[in-house]
Amino acid sequence: MDWTDRHCRFFHRQLSRHAQLYTEMVTAPALVRGNALHLLRHDPQENPLVLQLGGSDPVELAQAARMGSDAGYQEINLNCGCPSDRVQSGCFGAVLMTQPNLVGDICAAMQAASPVEVSVKCRIGVDEQDPHEALPKFLEVLSQAGVGHITIHARKAWLQGLSPKDNREIPPLDYPLVLAMKTEFPHLHISINGGITSLAQARGFLDQGLDGVMIGRAAYQRPADLLLGADAEIFGQTSTTTLQSAIDAMRPYIARELAHGTKLASITRHMLGLFAGKPGARHWRRVLSEQAHRPTAGLEVIDMALDAMAQAATAPAEADSQR
């Protein structure tokens, strides 16, 4: 949430044509009761794109799923993995893993209301649950409800005692359990999530029989490393995309958004990590961070950031020290 908004997704699509992108979690009450249709905004170029929903009321989620499919989303995903206090208080996210039958009812209602696929993202368990017992039971209920695609974050969620940030890092990863679930439920499309930081690591999970790999923070923080080579390495598709061509592809989008009143920083904040690990990356980040917030900031800020990087490249010692 607050990361993979529509600007972020459009940018990421310039780096990979085939990777499936996910929205931020959108709550069903916001759509159904709040009529917050702006949360469904997206550019068709973002496809293949999944709408991620949060909620716990089957009727409300069915309505939200229908709204999502009507808006052009190709898949609707129910979030059963987010551990934040705000999510718990609304009885959705990871806390739903304690009510698998309710989740089954929710998914059945969403499927009845929407013509597109309904999928689920979950943890391996929550709090004192034994994942080796809770996860298979949860998957069995989902399977019986007709869900065919499940993404499993290979960590428990501790709803009491850990912050959302800690829940992404502290509970130990149990990749073998997720792999075992693919063996136990071979008919399900199972993707793995959690702690995956490279395409080579992703390729390894696919080679072990999993159907998909979801990458979150690493893809956001180092988008070129994770997305630029994905079409070739993961999807076997030839790609001629470069960092420069991706930036050039963003220019018409940025110009159009600026004309509609979008602030430059709302877009470029997602591009700060584009050159992560490369000479001059610090100069790119600095110029965008300092200049994109100006009220009149436009495409010239992109050129300023590129020029700053180019100047750094002429001074190798300085560039090396400021990566």
The gist of it:
With 323 residues, the chain is an alpha/beta fold. The chain is built from 17 helices and seven strands. It folds into two domains: 6-233, Aldolase class I (TIM Barrel, Alpha-Beta Barrel); 243-321, Up-down Bundle (Four Helix Bundle (Hemerythrin (Met), subunit A)).
Description of the structure:
This protein is of the alpha/beta class. The chain has two domains: 6-233, Alpha-Beta Barrel (TIM Barrel); 243-321, Four Helix Bundle (Hemerythrin (Met), subunit A) (Up-down Bundle), CATH 1.20.120. Helix content is 47%, strand content 14%. Strands 1-2-3-4-5-6-7 form a seven-stranded parallel sheet. Helix 6 links the parallel strand 4 (117-126) and strand 5. Helix 3 (58-70) packs parallel to helix 5 (100-113) and helix 15 (281-291) packs antiparallel against helix 16.
Which tags fit this structure?
323 residues; 47% helix; Four Helix Bundle (Hemerythrin (Met), subunit A); single chain; disordered C terminus; 14% strand; 17 helices
Portion in strands = 5-15%
Instruction: Find the CATH topology of the largest domain.
Output: TIM Barrel
- pLDDT averaged over residues: 93
What's the CATH superfamily of the largest domain, by name?
Aldolase class I
Give the low-pLDDT segments: 318-322
Shape: globular
Largest sheet: 7 strands, parallel
How many domains, as an integer? Answer: 2
Level-1 CATH class name of the largest domain = Alpha Beta
* Strand segment count: 7
Number of helices: 17
Report the helical percentage: 40-55%
Please state the structural category: alpha/beta
N-end to C-end Cα span? 28 Å
The appropriate CATH architecture of the largest domain is Alpha-Beta Barrel
Strand order of the largest sheet: 1-2-3-4-5-6-7
Q: What is the CA-atom radius of gyration, in angstroms?
A: 21 Å
Order of helices and strands: HEHEHEHHEHEHHEHEHHHHHHHH
